[in-house]
Amino acid sequence: MRFRIIVLAKQVPDTRNVGKDAMKADGTVNRAALPAIFNPEDLHALEQALSIKDKIPYAEVILLTMGPTRAAEIIREAMYRGADRGFLITDRKFAGSDTLATSYALSLAVKKLAPYHLVVSGRQAIDGDTAQVGPQTAEKLGIPQITYAEEILSLDAKKIIVKRRLERGVEVVNSTLPALITVHSSAPPCRQRIGKLLMKYKHARTVTELQNETKDYTELYNERPYLLIEEWSAEDLKADTQNLGLSGSPTKVKKIENVVFAHKDSKILSNSDKDIEKLMQTLISSHIIG
Amino acid sequence: MNNIFVYCEVTEERSIADVSLELLSKGRKLADDLKVKLEAVVIGHKVIKPEALLYPFGVDVIHYADDEKLFPYTTLPHASVIIELFKKEQPEIVLFGATSIGRDLAPRVASALRCGLTADCTSLEIGDHFENKTQTEYKNLLYQIRPAFGGNIIATIINPETRPQMATVREGVMKKEVYSVKYKGKLNKIDVKSILKDDDFAVTIIERHLEKSRIDIKNAQVVIAGGYGVGSKENFQLLFDLAEVLGAQVGASRAAVDAGFVDHERQVGQTGVTVRPKLYIACGISGAVQHRAGMDQSAQIISINTDINAPINQIADYTITGNVADVIPKMIKYYKKNSK
Q1: CB contact at 8 A, A39 and A125
Q2: Which of A134, A171, A261 is the closest to B207 by Cβ?
Q3: Are A254 and B157 in contact (CB under 8 A)?
Q4: % of chain A beyond a pLDDT of 90
Q5: Which of A158, B61, B185, B250 has fewest C-beta within 10 Å?
Q6: Chain B residue closest to A178 (CA)?
Q7: How far apart are alpha carbons B134 and B156 in whole angstroms?
């Protein structure tokens, strides 16, 4: 039996480099203005999976993501770096899912890939920063979770030893398998794309993507069936629609506000010696410093 | 209405973490608003005088699970104890610290109870909600307020239908306030043995190296914080130089931490520490919402920035237009010259 590692990843808007046109006048987010990227900590998770594959030749790395058709981009990206294959969970019924509904859908997809040994994901995604989906998915799968992983110290078919990065230090834990691990940004960064794999998988597409292609790929796909990225709908997962999307999400957004801070009457100073000396004198005489 | 629960994190020294005491203080206010009781959940072993420590924060009931297998913290046994307790007690609201422990534990519990959870709230309020779609009115919900989307917007999250309403809050966001030194509650000892199963110990700790935090930004009177605009690790040294002269602590924005200029421990903001110093000097910080959420309560703010339109300048008392590498040495020079 192959040692199966499932990587959970998310395509996210790059909220780290939000420009001026990222917010619309009404205070909502202009997603179109933000580039979509592979969630950074999920790349760290992918690296952990690939480094296991380096050591255990019979290991297999499968990328699982949930999102619109466009999210297939990160499946290809993972295949360029060494993942064996990927599945896209996509359905309008998933729209509006909070972390609980997301973990429900992900857990069904992981179960569909049973028997598996290890599930790996980033600690959190940069668009929400909640760090909830990992532990929630582990709970739904009924397996242990190891959060904030920095390094996998050892691994065999039955157990794993992991170093965790905590707020004030490190902890080394031993867990039975299968288990779910969330990877911290202090773990090694992901390897780059490999030229050979880029050539091999550059035409990998989901069914929906193929329908939108102008070129006919039928022959190529008959010859190389591994190019097809499978899509899973709510029905494929045999999901209870009550637990999906908005109806499966106990949290609701009541209000979104663009942030308006009260303007203070700021004193504008230059960087001249005179201005800065005066400021320091003011701070000292008003006992704010000194 | 049912009661408010706070998960009280046990520290390395077997006391209760500051963040939990802060949450009890907030929980007491919410409990008074809702006219319900405040209950604390303590899970650990040989915790030092939990009753004497917690009752003054207005705690009505302490649920105490004491067993050697429950310290140090591991996820599964703590989750099992809490899930069992909450199924019985049906809390209205539950608060966790947004710490390594709280952020590991709360989502596991929320998943098992199928309830909503909001991470890293910066404000909690009680309010009503009218759902247009179903024409239903909900009274006295917990408004869970947090910056979202990289801190570019502020979202108010509610859980109309499910209970408990759960939230995590970072250390320093709420104020620790003793309610009444004479306040007395009662102790409920949890029967741990009847709850825990062998499966709960699938994860075992082999080694731990935890340090007491060396950096205390939260209680500093003066904080000198650097952002991406500081430019390099080398330039950050200037901030440390000024901090030494002023007896201040050095903080940082998320961008500076992500760029590797300083340790994560120094991060100020929604996903870092919240500070309220007498003076906050923001060096090369543009002022994303997520950063401002962690420092806008500072008594005085000085912003040093080459960009006069940086958002942080809107909340600054003094704006110095200039380069950090240029301005800080001058501040050091003139502080030394003018202080006795």
Answers
A1: yes
A2: A171
A3: yes
A4: 78
A5: A158
A6: B202
A7: 20
User: What is the DSSP track for B51-71?
Assistant: HHHHGGGT-SEEEEEE-GGGS
Give average pLDDT by consecutive 10-residue segment, chain B, 340 residues.
Answer: 97 95 98 98 98 98 98 98 98 97 98 97 96 94 88 87 96 92 97 96 95 77 95 94 92 92 90 90 92 90 94 93 94 89
B313 in A contact zone (CB under 8 Å)? yes
Q: Within its chain, how far is the Cα of B110 from the centroid?
A: 19
Look at B202 and A144 and tell me if their CB atoms are within 8 Å. Answer: yes
Q: Please report where in the chains the tokens 């801070």 appear, as a residue.
A: A261
| B220: nearest Cα among B169, B263, B271, B281 | B281
Which parts of A59-193 fold into alpha helices (H)? 72-81, 99-112, 133-141
Phi-psi region of A31 (alpha: psi -120 to 50; beta: other; left: phi over 0): alpha
The single-letter DSSP state of residue A113 is: T
3-state secondary structure of A63: strand
Q: Which of B157, B154, B175, B155 is nearest to B165 (CA)?
A: B157
As a whole number of angstroms, the distance between CA A70 and CA B123 comes to 35
* Prediction ipTM score: 0.90
> How crowded is residue A100: how many other Cβ atoms within 10 Å of its Cβ?
25
- Mutation target for A interface from B104, B124, B128, B146: give the one with most A CBs within 10 A: B104
Residues A127, A150, B43, B55: what is their CA dihedral angle, to the nearest 10 degrees? -60
Q: What is the spatial distance between Cα B218 and Cα B241, in angstroms, rounded to a whole number?
A: 19
Nearest to B213 among A138, A168, A251 (CB): A168
Three-state secondary-structure class, residue B44: strand
Could you name the CATH architecture of A3-243?
Answer: 3-Layer(aba) Sandwich (3.40)
What pTM does this model have? 0.86
Rounded CA-CA distance B151/A13 in Å is 13
* Distance (Å, whole) CA B316 – CA B294: 14
Note whether B106 and B131 are within 8 A (CB). Answer: no
Separation of alpha carbons A50 and A63, rounded Å:
11
Kindly state the tokens that stand for A265. Answer: 């009457």
- In sequence order, the 6+-apart residues with CB closer than 8 A to the CB of B139 are B128
Residue type, A145: Q
